[in-house]
Specification:
The protein is an alpha/beta fold. The protein is built from nine helices and eight strands. It has an eight-stranded parallel beta barrel, surrounded by six helices. Helix 1 runs parallel beside helix 2 and helix 1 runs parallel beside helix 9. The structure holds 4-methyl-5-hydroxyethylthiazole phosphate and magnesium ion. The site of 4-methyl-5-hydroxyethylthiazole phosphate has 15 residues, from helix 8.
């Protein structure tokens, strides 16, 4: 299949994932300025090697910053802490709580997203079970996480041509390389280092992603309308 982003899709949006280690108080300022710099749909609090109290404290500090801006804040891996802290949902990997346990913990109205690597089978299973999004990756090399799968933009094309459940693209995504993923049908572009490690700061990065995502969405619409070559 070679078609591009379906024309009736909503605009692709940015999905921020926190660095694995943060000091929540100074990070709150970075997050505020990032969220004020452009369109962000969701923030995933992804703390590695943090104890439960540290996750609770970070969630308590960051939740109001996201929620007062209409941005969802979800926790990585921990449905129990997501429910306890009043987060908007949880993102689970294939080796974390399974979908049903996650849904039972956070409730019907919360967001449950599921990592599906580059597996169409895993994504269909998650979608059938009721996941709010499926995440594919890693699309590019990344030093943020050790990844065993390399995803192909064709998977985004295939998924978004067949299913209404949103898909997230993740892994090594930058302002310069996000365009083909947006054009292939990603609903969300998930990013860690290209935002938090941007040399001019996270706000500059979010503004530049916003522009790049908007341009790629417009290009996909033009192509679908037959105004631009593939
Ligand atoms: N899951 C798959 S790749 C990845 C995660 C959490 C890391 C994404 O980080 P970056 O810095 O945007 O490549
Ligand atoms: Mg996990």
């Amino acid at each position: 299949m070679n078609s591009d982003r379906p024309v009736n899709k909503e605009r692709c949006r940015l999905y921020l994932i926190t660095p694995a280690r943060i000091d929540p108080v100074p990070f709150a300022d970075d997050l505020s300025s990032a969220l004020d710099a452009g369109d962000v749909a969701c923030v995933q609090l992804r703390l590695k090697d943090a104890d439960d109290d540290a996750v609770r404290r970070a969630a308590e500090t960051l939740l109001p910053i996201a929620q007062t801006r209409g941005v969802a804040l979800i926790l990585n891996d921990r449905p129990d802490l997501a429910a306890e802290t009043g987060a908007d949902g949880v993102h689970v990997g294939q080796h974390d709580a399974d979908y049903r346990m996650a849904r039972a913990a956070v409730g019907a109205d919360a967001i449950v997203g599921v990592t599906c690597h580059d597996s169409r089978d895993l994504a269909m299973r998650a979608g059938e079970q009721g996941a709010d999004y499926v995440a594919f990756g890693a699309f590019f090399p990344t030093s943020t996480k050790e990844t065993k799968t390399r995803a192909d933009p064709e998977t985004l094309r295939w998924w978004s041509g067949l299913f209404v459940v949103p898909c997230v693209a993740i892994g090594g995504i930058t302002i310069g390389n996000c365009g083909p993923l947006v054009r292939a049908g990603a609903d969300f572009i998930a990013v860690v280092s290209a935002v938090w490690d941007h040399p001019e700061g996270p706000a500059t990065a979010v503004a530049a992603f916003d522009k790049a995502i908007g341009q790629a969405t417009d290009e996909a619409a033009d192509r679908a309308a037959g105004h631009a070559p593939d």
